[in-house]
Amino acid sequence: MKQAWLELPERSNLFWLNTINWISLRLGRWLSCLLLYPITAYFVIFSFRTRAASRAYLRRVLGRECGWTEVFRHYHTFANTLLDRLYIFAGQDQQLDISMNGVEILDSYVRSGRGCLLVGAHLGSFEIARAVGVLGSGYRIKALVYGEGTPRITEMYRKLNPSLFKDIIYMGSGTESLVGLDQHARQGGIIALLGDRSVRASKRIRCEFFGEQAWFPEAPALLSRILDIPLVLFFCLHLGNGRYEIRFEHLADPPHVGRYRRAAAVHDIMQRYANRLEHYCKLAPYNWFNFYDFWQSDE
Question: Which of 50, 61, 249, 257 is 20 to 30 Å apart from 291, CA to CA?
């Protein structure tokens, strides 16, 4: 069964993508930021399904009914992260103010030669965190992704900096897509993936999230066990006006348990992940960008 997020159409227009790209890189960030307001308004008005999902999420995280103002801010925060990603990929990161918290956790695993599994979410900007790690810190990061939800936008970024896409592994094509990950980790490499979207119904698990049951993928916990590497949580939070904070924290050690306790161990890890994701959503409520019914009850 296809998951809801896979069914969302990409609404971006190639002409306007190229236009905003040209304006951003040649005429300055201030003008691009001004243009984000009418662009955001267009998407808020003409995307009923994602607008409803935004309002449902904001109602949970803010604890009250939300109107157009809150939904607009949610969309606008997302638009800002897409814009800022342009500067990172184009080598103009001086346009942004990016700080890192807890990076010593990452350094310790890299120096030990053990490697680790970075688990993020559609919270803030996964791509900015990955690019900063590769370009700024020199980490060897392989990113596992489930597919292209926005192929036009992704292609625009790829043209800006092809080197940042050579270590992306697209999952879902079978176990052959994971070949070489063990060696990468054993050489102190980092593997990164997002833990808040599932693809295959047989590889997901129910966890409590904002007081209700929601689907989360088992992949982070399963990969940690298979590769025998620890899980490190990371988020790149958008703080407004080009400011970002990348946070790292230890999430869990690989689950060394017998076959009959494996399901419980996987659930425990993913519930821990859901708890921390909820914490960071409350900390930066307009940063979570899953614009679909995350609490769907389909089986």
Answer: 249
